[in-house]
């Protein structure tokens, strides 16, 4: 009951005091949009449901109709095409076909239909027959395995419907439609399911695939890729289908009966096929690896395999135009495939004999950077066909025809060789080089032909006929250094040079390969204008060639933006060779030529130098800055202190100084020797500064002290200094103990250590110790005896590496002559130094024997009876080592003797002394960074280690002498210089050792001797001997009164070999 009734019947207003407002206008609009979207979604759902229901009903009805048609087919039998029932049953056959799933009963019905009188049916019901043919082709493509033997029935039916002789208009129309519906794709799919045996079914497929070329005769200028499928002429469509489908079928030829193989080779329009492949290649961008044509068949290894199998036998009958086109297609197809395809061909069955596949491990140019996916495992037949591409038989045929049509085909065969050498692994590419260079079979089967070029003739022809006078050569030989860089850069990026670069690349590869087995006596002719017996180029031609290669290599290192690490990398125009691989090839040949020139100069003075004096002014400092930056990056110096000492360089600065270090490490000879010696010393000074090492006697640098008995210098030196390792860079003080057990007088300010180092080197490099062996010229190299490979002896090699590293670090010359090939290994260039000419510095008798073997005119195998083994005698026992696996069973023949020579050279120069060299270089690298040594050549390194072999220049010594207590005009000084001039060269070296502890003068003259050579007055007592302080290069000379008196005392002093007490 309401007790608060006021008499009013109006409802009371409810007032909300919570402060909440009603929905805003934007909220109302959003709500409206949401409702509208929901209605739209519901509408779409209804429409989708309607379409799904309609599709389901259509599918159900179609399936029901197909079942009814199939059931009706089962109840009747086929009649003649003239009967109306035939047409009705054919329509039932069409309606019962289901393209998405295989129906065995339907396939059998189609086969039954195909066995009827379909030839007559084509004349009456061409449209129905064409539809059944389309269904058969679809089933062959989609269900070739399930069809089994029924597929052969379909192919036989197609052969009857599509005759080759006098086809009617309906038959031609049907064939045109079949081509459009994928005739060749269907045949390829079916052939791929057949067993790997020569079956008639495969032969029928090939016969049918060739029918269009008989029905539509005559070549066509219209290619199917340029027009739509419907508008393409039938022959063009057939050619495209045959190439894209049949020629890309794996193991095609092994499945064919021999008559079918013969028919295929005879009826295939090979020239049109070649031209079609060249057209397909135009859609492929070799630089970016992009292809404008979808599913371009040129990327299939089976296409190359089948093309080589069908084309290699035709080479001998090709004219110039055909051969050029054939070579261009082989080049294209190799360029499009990744190198891993060709590597798979040499994994199990090498192209050449084992002696070649294991040999010639030269620096491999960088592999092609193809982005193609990894191919499936290639079958044996495909690998065999691909290996035929680089077989001696195929190469000889190509060389013979190319020689016959040299003017039209040399550029094409060079492009082919460049592609081959780039994509094939070294085991195959080396065989290719050998075959091209020497013109015979590397496995021992003589295949000489009279029209093949002579040994080295290809090199001579390429140089004189195609490179020397080419526009590319003119570009690479600019007038000034700046012009050379600009011209070279243009040549490296100009597509117009695409035909010239492959010739230069092949020339460089072939000539570099020839130099590996060419001795110096074969390299140098008697007359500069004539070629030597085995050298295809004259010395004057080599000067021109080396100048061109020098300019090219310098530009590639100096302009390092050309050779980048981007993907894909920049390529040599017209090839798949990256510019980095070009640089490696050119550098290798350039180094080989410079090595010959260093041994026996044939180039004019200054030929190798590239920079002007103005450029050299800033070169040293730029290199030092770059070296510091590289060291900081390698050590991970990211701390503020490290960056304060070596602040980060700007990209512009790095771009300026970076190439200089590249030049020094790879082609150092383009910089004058004096500049590089200064750079080496700057490297050492920079390293000492980084390690806070001071050579000042009174500095606080950590100094190591060693007490050495004079009669046991080597043993005591190793015991006390070897454990220091890299700390041997720090100063070392030596205290000698004389024969009476007493310390010798004197404070080691550097001179005593130099005397210790000189005496140590004289003892440990004595061949009687068993660590070293001397050649004919008394040059030393590690002893290959098994004794020297014992762990205790290897530790001695490590110690000696550290000792010579210490000598280089301190700038001390040592009196030891090392063999040329061993010095070369210090530089890390073993890939081109292990050649026949280097062998002369190891064993001159072996070198002469191998040269005789190389030039032996008789029956090598029967007269010499050699095999691929070497014999070593130790302690009266002979040990035989195989140069290659199974070498004892491989005779040395006229054909494989070059490989034998290479193997022997490599074994003697590298493998036999590998542990000794590794131990030595381990010790050497602890004190001398290997990068520092790469600024030198072998002969320059010899000078840096041992000094120059030139006689001591007394005029230079006198010009850089200071005097204490004397004047240069004093009689005692005059008598001294006159006495010194009468000494023989050996005594002068003994004098230099007496006053400086080193018998050889400084590299760049006595102006670099620090401290300078000094002569100090030692009193008027002429009975005294002259004495020396080697630590300060000081001679203490009494005031002798005659030249004879001075000469007598001087000779006695320098030959006494007394210790430090004498001074």
TrEMBL record:
Gene Ontology terms, MF aspect = ubiquitin protein ligase activity
| Highest taxon in the source lineage | Eukaryota
Identify the taxonomic lineage of the organism of origin. Answer: Eukaryota, Fungi, Dikarya, Basidiomycota, Ustilaginomycotina
| Alphabetical UniProt keywords | Acyltransferase, Transferase, Ubl conjugation pathway
Q: Fetch the CDD domains from UniProt.
A: HECTc, IQCD
Q: Domain HECT, which positions?
A: 728-1063
Provide the gene name from the record.
Answer: HUL5
Annotated GO biological processes are: protein polyubiquitination; ubiquitin-dependent protein catabolic process
| Enzyme class label | transferase
Q: Could you confirm whether the keyword Transferase appears in this record?
A: yes
PANTHER family tied to this protein: UBIQUITIN-PROTEIN LIGASE E3C
- What reaction does this enzyme carry out catalytically? S-ubiquitinyl-[E2 ubiquitin-conjugating enzyme]-L-cysteine + [acceptor protein]-L-lysine = [E2 ubiquitin-conjugating enzyme]-L-cysteine + N(6)-ubiquitinyl-[acceptor protein]-L-lysine
Task: Name it.
Answer: HECT-type E3 ubiquitin transferase
Q: Which InterPro entries match?
A: E3A/B/C-like (IPR044611), HECT_dom (IPR000569), Hect_E3_ubiquitin_ligase (IPR035983)
